[in-house]
Write a structure and sequence with these properties.
The complex is a heterodimer of chains A (about 250) and B (about 325). Chain A has about 250 residues and is mostly helical. Chain A is built from eleven helices and no strands. In chain A, helix 3 runs antiparallel to helix 7 and helix 5 packs antiparallel against helix 6. A six-stranded mixed beta sheet of chain B has the order 6-7-8-3-9-10, with helices on both faces. In chain B, strands 2-1-4-5 form a four-stranded antiparallel beta sheet, with helices on one face. In chain B, helix 2 runs parallel beside helix 4. The chains are: A mainly alpha (about 250), B alpha/beta (about 325).
Chain lengths: ~250, ~325
């Protein structure tokens, strides 16, 4: 466990020293500030727009970090051969993969906390009362980021950075459209298409179950059992992807 | 006891692309490295040196064959507590300072926090980078990166040090420092196994060497045994003031006599003939200029065994290049 922590803390430090991260956070500040401006330009539901845009910005920035840092977590180490000296130490490949993952999770946690703080300040400035539903939405955004990071890490263990980015983003987008997959299966006339698409619906990560931003924007509290089940689903899916990533990485030649 | 045992190791790279033939990198390679020795692993580009080292360090799996390090199988992760490794042309986290970099590797090796700062100072002094302690690695020159790489390989005081082309990219002073460092490691009782394509490095510091070409072991043994296997060394005697070829004693003892003006070059097949020839030169009134034992070189051996091309004059007697 100590070695996993050493890798995780080093990954966290690497991310903190990456200028891209700060550019992204600056972009977040701009978007959140812009949401106030946009709300002022609209006729009604100002508070809803500020909340909606704030949560969407947090989600988008988190996904960008998860995907573009996630695909480099292991891939960059292999490409730059830094992995040689690390794996020559008394550390297993599984420990290395877990350490890299936890390092990015820590980075995301700090980022989401920072963005949440900016978001809360924006809400306060706009005199929007805080509601527990907001925190439910942020919590599930974080679970989604854990899953997306695991996806990016999994792809990067056997693919190039560009392909990993395309596949992760593809999974992310389709992951938010799985309900349409179910509809497609139901409306199809061909049994084979129905079977394949239904199979995809059940296998593909359903990211929409982790999206309660709409409810948060209208201050509608989601049932806690739903939040717990959705979180469990996201975490289990991430754990499966991590297990697969470790298995692929264990068998790789460098 | 052997520090490394390699037994009929084979590695075949298989291409992911359909139709491309598999590429053999190691072909039944066997060798052993004894504890406490400096062992040079010599070969040209593509001979399988880096592949062998990667297999030993668990970075790659062999297609067939076995290998052991310090009496343990290669998949024993715990054995790596006792091994230090420097890969060829290493790339390190450039956002770390030298101090943070060594702390990272010290922590990975499980060093106690209390002794780590002292160990870092010791390592930076050892590789001559004490003044660059707080400098980020992105500002390091190639030679400095090589030296900090050596420091990370040694920070946990390993019994066995495995180095892939440790002198590559270094200037003459840097190479001398690395050679001295390797010699000092042996003095401390450590085993050093290093690959190189620079023959003088091997000749100067290695106790034993292996020559590998196309994944096959061509020769293994002590340098002097390999270059003069069971033969007495020939001796060149240069004298002046006489025509050596016309002196019967000298002509009978020499395998070759060359006359250049007033100077005669007499090649003797072994040291036993030196004394009678020197007496004959004195008796004929000649003056002795030099007596030079002719040692065979590793380069000659390498050429003989492999037929590998060697660079021209001014070369560092390089048997390939740096990339593997």
């Amino acid at each position: 466990m100590q070695r996993v922590a050493v890798i995780a803390l080093n990954t966290f430090r690497e991310n903190l020293r990456d200028k891209i991260l700060y550019n992204l956070l600056f972009f977040v500040l701009l978007l959140m500030g812009g949401s106030v401006l946009l709300a002022d330009l609209t006729i009604m539901e100002h508070r809803r727009i500020v909340t909606d845009m704030g949560l969407a910005t947090m989600n988008l920035a988190g996904v960008v970090i998860a995907v573009f840092v996630g695909i480099g977590l292991v891939g960059k180490e292999i490409e730059r051969r830094t992995v040689y000296t690390i794996l020559a130490r008394p550390i297993s490949r599984t420990q290395f993969v877990l350490g890299k993952y936890l390092g990015l999770v820590l980075t995301l946690l700090v980022n989401v906390t920072f963005m949440l703080a900016v978001f809360l300040v924006t809400l306060w400035a706009y005199k929007t009362p805080l509601h527990a539903a907001l925190f439910q939405a942020v919590g599930l955004i974080f679970v989604e980021l854990l899953l997306v990071t695991a996806l990016a890490l999994f792809f990067s263990t056997f693919s190039t950075a560009t392909l990993s980015a395309i596949m992760t983003l593809g999974f992310y987008v389709i992951g938010h459209l799985t309900t349409d997959l179910k509809g497609l299966a139901e409306n199809s006339q061909h049994a084979a298409v129905q079977t394949v698409v239904t199979g995809l619906y059940y296998v593909w990560p359903n990211l929409e179950v982790l999206n309660v931003k709409g409810q948060a924007a209208t201050n509608a509290l989601v049932d806690m059992s739903y939040v717990a089940t959705a979180s469990m689903y996201g975490l289990l899916y991430a754990a499966l992807l991590l297990t697969a990533a470790c298995a692929v990485f264990r068998d790789r030649d460098f | 006891m052997n520090a490394i045992v390699i037994d009929r190791l084979t590695k075949v790279y298989r291409s992911a692309w359909f139709g491309r033939p598999p590429m053999p990198a190691l072909d039944g390679l066997s060798l052993s490295v004894q504890q406490g020795e400096i062992y040079g692993f010599l070969g040209p580009n593509g001979s399988g040196k880096t592949t062998t080292l990667k297999i030993l360090m668990g970075l790659m799996r062999a297609t067939s064959g076995n290998a052991e390090i310090l009496g343990k199988p290669l998949d024993d992760v715990q054995i790596r507590h006792r091994i230090g490794f420097l890969p060829e042309a290493p790339y390190f986290y450039e956002y770390l300072t030298a101090e943070e970099f060594l702390a990272f590797y010290g922590n990975l090796a499980g060093l106690e926090r209390s002794g780590l700062a002292r160990k870092i100072t010791q390592m930076l002094d050892l590789v001559g980078l004490a003044e660059a302690r707080t400098r980020p690695l992105r500002k390091f020159s190639k030679g400095m990166l090589q030296r900090i790489g050596l420091a990370q390989a040694l920070i946990h005081d390993p019994e066995l040090v495995v180095l892939d082309e440790p002198m590559s990219g270094l200037d003459p002073v840097g190479r001398m420092q690395v050679r001295d460092l390797i010699l000092s490691l042996r003095d401390q009782g450590k085993t050093v196994f290093f690959s190189t394509h620079i023959i003088p490095d091997v000749e100067m510091i290695c106790d034993r060497v292996a020559i590998v070409v196309k994944g096959k072991l061509l020769a293994e043994g002590r340098v002097d045994e390999l270059v003069n296997p069971g033969h007495a060394q020939s001796v060149e005697v240069v004298c002046e003031g006489i025509k050596a070829g016309e002196v019967a004693t000298i002509r009978a003892a020499a395998s070759r006599v060359l006359q250049r003006g007033d100077h005669s070059l007499v090649v003797l097949p072994g040291p036993d003939q030196v004394e009678p020839v020197l007496s004959a030169i004195r008796a004929e009134g000649g003056r002795l200029v030099s007596v030079t034992p002719q040692k065979g070189s590793l380069e000659d051996l390498f050429m003989k065994r492999s037929g590998a091309p060697i660079d021209g004059p001014g070369r560092q007697r390089d048997v390939g290049g740096s990339a593997e």
